[in-house]
Amino acid sequence: MTTILENTADVPGGKPVLPEKPEETRGLSQGQIVRKRFFGHTGAVVSIFVLAAVLVLSISAIGLGPIPGWWKYGYTETPALMNGGHPTLQLFPFSLGEHPFGQDRVGRDMFAMTLRGAQISLFVMIVVGAIAALVGVLIGASAGFFRGKTEAILMRFTDMVIIIPALIAAAVVAQAAKGPVLLAIFLGLVSWTGMARLVRGDFLSLREREFVDAARLAGASNSRIIFKHILPNAVGVITVNTTLLMSAAILTETALSYVGLGIQAPDTSLGKLISDNQAAFSTRPWLFWWPGLFIVVICLTINFIGDGLRDAFDPRQKKLNVRRVKESPDRPDAQGVPALVNNAPSGPSSALTSGLYQNLDQPADGGEGNEETHR
Amino acid sequence: MLTYITRRVLASLLILLGASFIVYMLVAYSGDPLAEIKSSNSPSKEARIAQRTEALHLDVPPALRYFIWLGGAVKCVVPFVGQCDLGVTLQNQPVTVALSTAIPTTLQLVTTAAVLAITIGISIGIVTALRQYSTLDYGVTFVTFLFFSLPIFWVAVLLKEFGAIKFNTFLYDPYIKNSTILLISLVMGLLWAVLLSGSWKRRGITFVSAFAVTAGVLYFLSVTRWFSEPSLGIVVILVTGVAIAFGSTVLFAGLRNRRALYSSLIMVGLGGVAYYALQPLWDRATLWLVIGLGILAIVAGWLVGRFMGGYDHQQSSRAAMLTSFGVSGLVLLDQFMKNWSRYASDPHIRQRPIATIGAETPGLNGDFWLTGIDKYTHLVLPTIALILISLASYTRYSRASMLEVMGQDYVRTGRAKGLSERVVVTRHAFRNALIPLATIVAIDIGALIGGAVITESVFSFKGMGVLFLNGVRDHSPNPVMGVFLVTGITAVVFNLIADLAYSALDPRVRVKA
């Protein structure tokens, strides 16, 4: 594959350059390539902006710790009930009004409470994701790579943590110290197990591959093999799992608060808001919709960012494998495969619509080797 | 291999011991189980405190109390040692009794949801992987992400509002508005157009026909008041059966294998005969009769495939078995539907057939069909909620796994030696794509047993989750430990299975004896 690729690359001028052809990535560092691919993923880019907007909105409106925010009501204040607590948010023309998300039964401002809940959820998510990913990768990687006694001890330890229910840890934390910080740390310390098992599984399989033998023959140390050779190949699994972990962390935190074991009053959380207001669904539906909507939006954006990262990192599931094979009738090896030439559309535009499905069934692995040589 | 398993089981025992000690201490130190009594103004306060202290051994420090509990718990796990004793709950009910009613409830809820989520999730994942970056793929990706982002308690409240309260009102007067018909048909048309894909012309035709068919069917159902007295009838069963026959033949043998197609079609015919032959039997139906008939149907499928013979009779058998299974399911469904109006008009139901809470209607006494429908109407909402939540991860993982396999050399080799795309996908790619999934599925099943805590509490299922939550809230270790024992043992066993399965399926990963 390497030789073929170099031949195509060295052909001077001529053929139109398609986006993200191997030539495009030539001379770029791994980080640059990943960034480039990531910003080509619409869903992920939109998600980053939405998530940032939620983050900025929740922090600036409510304030952070002692710093006050710009919103006139705090999440614990109980202003007088206006207009039965109906939401005053207007989109055309846009105006927030007095209580954009409405008020609850005693008059507390839903906008302030929802944003405070979002703030807590985001904080818990980040802490849990960071702790769990770090611990999980370290334990999984060392278990999968070293095998033997190390693996036995680490994985038995993992098994032990797996079967300790997160609910119990949270219940203890809720009793011991009221506050999201300890809750987040404890949740992180019990939710790394899935990551460790997945990383270990990946390492078990990867360490039997030829490139690891090659690296070892070349005299690479264990840590170099782990971090430079195997880990980059496992990065897809890790990023996908970290994002799954982070969105799961939000759901766990809100679920805990929903059953009364997470964030405790007077502080509030998105889950607690739903739990407090679910009985009022028929009379005050807005109390129920807004916190739920925020949970879904935060989770959804995280998942899309994870998907974008996966596409950017993982050379094995990349978008352009198939299209490149199809769109390049000039590939030297394509001429050897009549089916490919027959199916190849004349221009890049048509590939996007009609011919895509039929061509997906054609051998599509031509591009994979190419990418490997460029990494 | 045996040495490995023995060692793992011994290690698992140690793991369980360690984890149970940690859990016991966490619960014991989370709060005071006497707090509720202490804050009350009851005149018999002292006596109640003394009684509870006695029952829960509260005068012993937690670390030692754990060993009292362990002494009783060992008798449950090791046979013939003595009476199983897991302590009592705060309400003085033995935990063993509480568990014996809670476990079946939870299993009922979780099994259906797990099986359906795994089947549907993996199928969707494989299909989207085969059509990577199509409209279908993008759509499914978005929808699975959305499902994955839904908090289950939020979904549950929504399902209760729209799936039960509003739907029951609709069932009371099952007339579908024209605008609703139009909307549903529009969605179905789009869905089919995306699913079948092809050129724009073909998509247009698909859209129009799916739209027309859906609108027609819905209008028919509305006019004939089908929802009041639903049934399938022999015609629908046979037509769907033929569709299943073709589908399973395509999947297992390819349409060019006429013997497989004919054996599947024979099974559809036999199903039609059975539909009439079994009618007198249904009045005295029991669960075992239904299971027996189901097994009989599958065996019949195998036999028919065997007798059709040919070079590859196993393919015919498989196709016939799947068809037979599907058709018997339809016949059974039809019978349940025929009993629906009887169920819906039962005074215990009070015109609200889809239930929002509980696992069964209290006081309902009926035959196999009525209790069956009752179970179903109680299970349907929590099951939907559980499926929606767990669908996403199966879809994503199976898609990723399939994509990776489709890029492997052996898939190219398969194509290069002239195998049909069907054989490449089902034989070479699909089976290998399932290997990494085996680990995830095994672990998930272990986790699901105790993982329905939130769902159970929202839908008021008196299962293990509620027992567990109450224990945690009351700071009472005994019920928590009882649930933990069950979930912990399942989790450990399934973890072992996951490891063994991985090394059995993928010879590159070796189990060290």
Summarize the structure.
Chain A has helices at 2-10, 22-25, 30-39, 42-62, 110-146, 148-162, 166-176, 180-190, 193-206, 210-217, 222-258, 270-277, 286-313, 320-327, 338-343, 348-351, 356-360, 366-374. By secondary structure, chain A is mainly alpha-helical. Chain A: Residues 324-333 have a biased composition (Basic and acidic residues).
- Globally, the shape of chain B reads globular
Q: What portion of the residues of chain B fall into strands of 2 or more residues?
A: under 5%
Structural class of chain A: mainly alpha
- Residue fraction in strands of chain A: under 5%
- Give the domain tally of chain A: 1
Unreliable residue stretches of chain A: 1-20, 318-375
How would you characterize the largest beta sheet of chain A? none
Overall mean confidence score, pLDDT of chain A: 73
Distance between the termini of chain B: 5 Å
Evaluate the radius of gyration of chain A.
26 Å
CATH superfamily grouping of chain A: MetI-like
Number of strands of chain A: 0
SSE string of chain A, helix = H, strand = E?
HHHHHHHHHHHHHHHHHH
* Largest sheet, strands/sense/barrel of chain B: none
Please write the string of helix (H) and strand (E) elements of chain B. HHHHHHHHHHHHHHHHHHHH
Report the C-alpha radius of gyration of chain B, rounded.
27 Å
**Number of H- or I-type helical stretches of chain A:** 18
Overall pLDDT confidence of chain B: 85
Could you say which overall geometry of chain A the principal axes of the C-alpha atoms support?
Answer: elongated
| Corresponding CATH architecture of chain A | Orthogonal Bundle
